[in-house]
Sequence to fold (210 residues):
Amino acid sequence: MPRKLNTAFTDMTNHHTKHRKWYLEDLQKEALKFSRRSDFWRESQAAYAYARAHGLLDQVCQHMKGGRGLYKRTQKHHPQKGQDAVCYEDVLIARRLNSPNKYLARFVCYVHLSTVKSIESDNKRTKLNMFDGNIYALSATLAQIQAMLGDLVWLARRDLLVPTSQVCRYSPVTQSLILSDGSHIKVSRRRACLIPSVWIETMNKDTMLG
Fold:
């Protein structure tokens, strides 16, 4: 076979293999050839990509050791396709927006809710305003974050969530929540009627003592 035709045939074969439909048994047989996920990813990228896209990667890689940068991650911790952030209990996985290092800004970070000052809506994503001044981005709406965190956050305004563990009391004079660092978060009039009694009672006790 001429060289040009041979090259074209090889490219067509590779293209067909790349987009082939993999069954679970085929993926398991392919994965058994490797002892590390990094080798699986490097030597059989089509099978690896198919398993990852269909949520079968952990199942077919149970016998493997976690390779460098390709450690075993559960579905809850690992961002889904098209997302760069998820939530697991009181830990958020986000990207730092104001990082001075553009290379490090591409990677996701584990952010504990206790270090978050407020969660602000930003179109189709949300921003985490940290106590240390850093800002992180979450690829989820404010409503989705509120549904995932539940009672761990409280809606102060239509576009702002506050971690309940950081709220010390509510000031009706300034109509704002006073956080653990002394900062104030403005509360809308509609939400002011729904302030938890614990925060109001705490303020009244402090006022009486003063």
